[in-house]
Amino acid sequence: MKIYISVDMEGITGLVDHTHVDSSKLNYERGRKIMTQEANYVITKAFETGCEEVIVNDSHSKMNNLLIEDLHPETQLITGDVKPFSMVQGLNDSFNGAMFVGYHARASMSGVMSHSMIFGVRHMWINDVQIGELGFNAYVAGYFGVPVIMVAGDDGAAREAEALIPNITTAVVKESISRSAAISLTPLKAGELLAKKTEEAIQNIDNMKPLTPPKNPILRIEFANYGQAEWANLMPGTEIEVGTTIVRFQAKDILEAYQAMLVMTELAMRTTFS
Q1: One of 20, 60, 115, 123 is an active-site residue; which one?
Q2: Which of 46, 64, 181, 212 shows the greatest Cβ crowding within 10 Å of its Cβ?
Q3: Threshold 0.90, pTM exceeds
């Protein structure tokens, strides 16, 4: 069995604000150590439960957060950027299942550090389905016929996963009090929970189905202000919906939609206050 693990940071145990996830801030080094430890609980249990190959993709910010020297020695780590498929780089039809660890709720929803790729995104849709990072990544996995079998993170991420993916196993390591406060398990207790849920997810893999994306999907992204929409609209093939800050793109498949989202959000980040 071959398992793919995408590891984000905002949904990791005990991390509640930007000082934990921004490499320039005082709590970041603590945060990345807990992130690495948390990933390791999942990786180790995956191997113990019969997986022959585990590939991990560092999926936060510059994507060089996980401490490779502390990971299970049989792990293969995808690290650094720029990656053509960002949080799902390396995912293909050779995998039996995917797990998302350290995930968070989408933008405009309740949850610790909830967002969708960048702070300037309010909402994203594939056709009429509202999604965040979790949903978009699950659609890419589904394109390759790979089911997402577990999501670990805060309670907001768990609710989002359960609404999108029938029978998904979720591991809630912290519950949101606000966007920058939570009641959290300790890393040791979170590790015990993650190991248990990883084993459950792998044992349940035959009952899981991929989240199949629509053919020729329409991607729509609503930005926080019009300047961000204007920047995103510089990408060929996009249009701004009149009277809104929503930028629309007709894609040939979910992979093209995903890369369009990456380009549009990168452009939008160039917007300044004045």
Answers
A1: 115
A2: 46
A3: yes
